[in-house]
Amino acid sequence: MAADGFWAGRRVWITGHTGFKGSWLALWLQWLGAEVHGFSAGVTPLYEEADVADGLAGDVRGDVRSRSELRAAVARARPDVVFHLAAQALVRAGFERPVETFTINASGTAKVLEALRDHGTPRAVVVATSDKCYRNDGSGRPFAEDDPLGGDDPYSASKAAQEHVAAAYRGLGLPLATVRAGNVLGGGDTAPGRLVADAMRSAESGEPLQVRAPDAVRPWQHVLCPLEGYLAVAERLVADPAGTEPSWNFGPDADDELPVARLVEALRTRWPGGLPVRAAAPGAAAGEAPVLRLDSSRARHGLGWTPRWTLAQALDATVRWHVRHREGADMRVETLRQIAAFSGDDTVSL
Asked: Per residue in 289-333, pLDDT tens?
């Protein structure tokens, strides 16, 4: 979907570039020829195992709650395009550390955008929030971008707040749009409490996977699907900042909005030797919405975006990544190979 040559040599700054989405995005942008700078508080196993740092023009450790660190990073990167991904990204951690969740996700976003306004001249700023930023009325209907924002748990509320912060800075003149993705999966995710990450840990260790909410429905998709949308939004902002919609949903086709139990069964059939599963303790799913769906019509009509991989292809790629990891493969090569296959390189296949 990326315009030919658009990213070649372009200066890009990614906050949270060492996380799950950030690592995949940083590698993809390297593959497209961009000059990628990153700012993040720590590193993840994926970032290290895929050797993401190898192709970066800048790799800074810092905290989005620190205005001085952000100012220095923006001055160094001088970005043309920004992807703000840094976040406290786990629902359950929000219950355990609500103040940290709000200060990183809401206040941290304000400080990132203030640093860009005062010390940078970006042509496009893409702020990643979450599909959980919507006020979930329990109806089960797909949420569209103009639906009310809200949240009954700290993580969801912090993401709704992040949307309001972004809207305010858009009003202050930043060429900015927010992006809201469904539940993403893919190779290298190790975050505790995420279903597929937990499943891959269980598969590799032999310990049973504890399933918290087998009937909960989520919009599952490979991480590269929404990231392709993020790239398209950035390109649109550069071309027409005033005419670009302020927010965009990126979710799968309706057929890939499945209950947790069906996703677990699909993983079980794909993992060599099967996957041990057991039900979690009662109450483990407290605070989780029973149904969450996204209406991605705006992206489909306005950007020509559709999820390039089905859920079946996403699961195949995810299991392959972890099998190759278990075999001791070069995971930078494997991750880039999956990016190339996703992008339509005819010389590469899954």
From this structure: 788 899 999 999 999 999 999 999 999 999 999 999 999 999 999
Centre a 10 Å sphere on the Cβ of residue 26 and count the other Cβ atoms it contains.
30
Cα–Cα distance for residue pair 185/200, rounded to 1 Å: 11
Q: Is 306 helix (H, G, I), strand (E, B) or coil?
A: coil
Of 162, 151, 161, nearest in space to 95 by CA: 151
- Spatial contact of 9 and 34, defined as CB atoms under 8 Å apart: yes
In this predicted structure, which of 52-61, 103-112, 205-214 has the lowest mean pLDDT? 205-214
What is the rounded CA–CA span in Å between residue 83 and residue 151?
Answer: 24
Pairing type for strands 11-15 and 58-61 reads unpaired
Q: Look-up: residue for tokens 């799913």?
A: 285
pLDDT (tens digit per residue) in 192-213: 888 999 999 998 888 899 898 8
Do residues 113 and 165 touch, judged by C-beta distance below 8 A? yes
Coil, strand or helix: which one is 304? coil
Instruction: Please state which CATH class domain 11-342 belongs to.
Output: alpha beta
Give the start-to-end residue ranges of the domains of the chain. 11-342
Q: What is the phi/psi pair of residue 337, to 5°?
A: -65, -40
Q: Give bridge partners of residue 39 from the DSSP assignment.
A: 15, 60
Alpha-carbon distance 296 to 302, whole Å? 10
**Which pair of structure tokens corresponds to residue 239?**
């071309």
- Angle 221-223-229 from CA coordinates, rounded to 5°: 90
Check: CB of residue 339 under 8 Å from CB of residue 31.
yes
Provide DSSP, 144-210.
-TTSPB--SSHHHHHHHHHHHHHHHHHHTT--EEEEEE-EEE-TT---TT-HHHHHHHHHHH-PPEE
| Range ranked top by mean pLDDT from 182-191, 262-271, 296-305 | 296-305
Tokens of 215: 């009937």
Alpha carbon of 299 to those of 44, 248, 307: distances in Å?
30, 6, 10
